[in-house]
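REQUEST ID: PR-0412
SUBMITTED BY: lab tech R.K.
PRIORITY: routine
TASK: structure prediction, single protein chain
INPUT:
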Amino acid sequence: MSINILIIEDEVDIREGISEYLSEVGYEVKVASDGQEGIDLFRQNKFDLVLLDIMLPKINGFGVLSQIRETSNVPVIMLTAMNDDYSQIMSFNEKADDYITKPFSVVILHKRIEALLRRIPGKENTNKWLYKDVEVDFLGFSAKKQGKTVDLKPKEIKLLELLLKYKNQVLTRSQMLDNLWDVEETPLDRVIDVYIKNIRKKLGIDCIITVKGIGYKFDEKL
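STATUS: complete
OUTPUT:
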């Protein structure tokens, strides 16, 4: 199931940077450069989450948020350079779900998006994966094959969960590293290859596909 995100942001570099990153990690993204365009897009499409600047041309972010809330409880994250109490209070009074001040890390933004989406029925990841004779419990960090316990490392389980989340989409090694390690402890990207090899061998699965020169994707149809 694809996740649709609307970005309403008038600064080109920020808008394109967020859009590119979120598209790379598997989201469907539409963008608007002013408040009116954002409202029009929101009314014409179904979105699972909105990223909204405050200082926008035509209609500011408070006005956009107010109009969104007339018809929808979709999660809204405010992205703004305004860090004063008044702007934050106004945003939450208009029922914003989160408030992030610029500059910010797109990796952390992604984590905040995931946290909000987990609260939506049908959007969160399932806790267990069953495939042929394999069972993996992502919440309990355990795995079985033919009913027998398989020694998967926690990072191997998290990597498998990530690939499942973006099934049929190619993830680069860098994207996987960004999702699984903190910035200060990120290892060499070839550790991903080692973990993929271990997952395939330990579980005896053939549904993780190598995309030469790019990374990996999960294809459960195989």
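NOTES: DSSP finds eight helices and twelve strands in the chain.
REVIEWED BY: pending
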